[in-house]
Amino acid sequence: MQVLCLILTVLILAVLIRLLFRKVLDLPAYSGKLLTDNAGVDNLMEEDKFWQIIKITRDNSKRHYQIQCQLLTEYLSNLSGQEIIQFDRTFSVLMARSYSFRLWEPAYSLNGGCSDDAFEYFRSWLIAQGKNKFYWTIKCPRLLFFVGVKELIEHYEGIAYCAYEAYQQKTGLDIPQRQDIQYADGGKMFKEDEAFLRYPELALLAW
C-alpha cells in the first residue's frame, strides 16, 4: 500500500509540474551556442530579435498555439517585406539545424509515431514554444515530458506558414524560396520499435 501511495504521489507531482511548465513556467534561460552561429547563410534575422517576436506572440496568445500562429502572421505583416524574409530564413535555419534522429525518436514516442512531415511540424511547433524550451529540449529531449504535447492536440504545422502568409499579405507575392539552406544528415536512424522503450514516459503521453 505504501509503495502504491508513493507511486501515485510521484505521478500527481509529475502531472502538476508538467501543467506548470505548459501553462506558466519556462525552462532556465539558454545562453549556449546558437544554431545560426556560423550557419554560412546570409540575410538572417538576428536570433535575439527572432525569439523576441516569438515570445511576444506566445505571451499575447496566453500560450494557445493556434492563436499564437494568427498573432504571429499579423505581427509579421506589419514588418517590411525584407524583415519577413529574414524572419523566414532564420526560422528555416533553425528547422534545418535541429533536424536529428536524436530529437525525432522522442517525438516519435510522444506521438505514437512520427512521419517525415510530422517531424517537420513538430520542430516548427517546438520553435513556437520559445528559445529556452526549443534549445533545452534539443539538448535534453526527455524534457518533452514537461513541455511536449502530441500533434493530435496541438496541430503542429500552423507556424510553418506564418511568414509565407504575412509576405503575401504585405507584397501580394510568394516569399522567396530558401534553396541555399541545407539540412544536416540527422545522424544515425533510431529503431522505431525501440523508441517507446527508450522514452516510456513520453509513450504514456501518446495515449
Task: Describe the 3D structure.
- With 207 residues, the protein is mainly α.
- It has one domain (2-206).
- It is built from twelve helices and no strands.
- Helix 3 packs parallel to helix 10, helix 4 packs antiparallel against helix 10 and helix 5 (101-111) packs across helix 11 (192-198).
Q: With helices defined by DSSP (H or I, 4 residues minimum), what is the helix count?
A: 12
Biggest sheet details: none
The low-confidence runs, each spanning 5 or more residues with pLDDT under 50, are none
Task: Quote the average pLDDT.
Answer: 87
Compute the number of structural domains: 1
Order of SSEs: HHHHHHHHHHHH
The global form is: globular
DSSP E strands, number? 0
Helicity level:
55-70%
Task: Please describe the topology of this protein.
Layout lengths: L1 H22 L23 H14 L4 H13 L3 H17 L3 H11 L4 H13 L2 H9 L4 H4 L3 H4 L7 H10 L20 H7 L1 H7 L1
Label this structure with key terms.
207 residues; mainly alpha; globular; 63% helix; 12 helices
